[in-house]
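Researcher: Here's the sequence for the chain we discussed earlier.
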Amino acid sequence: MIGSDAELVWAPAELLEREGFPLGMEFGLRYPGNPCPTGIHDADVSAALAAGLILRPLRETLADTWAWLRREGDPAPRSDAPSPAQWFDPAQEQHILELVRPRRTS
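Model: Thanks. This is the structure I predict for it:
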């Protein structure tokens, strides 16, 4: 879709929590059963749905967003956006990937 060879790898919430992986900062996600509000995922959208909001498939949204970014260019970062230094530590991310990926045999 965007020409990336990135691989989507799912990790169990229990593993991420045990390893101290911070879900809330980067993606606005939270661990199951955690009552801490995260904002976007806690919004009640029932009024919007009742007014006719149509939910589109994620693939379609991603394709349209990618086309928009290619056409318009990257938007300027928000002043309150986390700096790259606040994102995932690459070594920690690699450690998590090693824990969840099946062992490959040669």
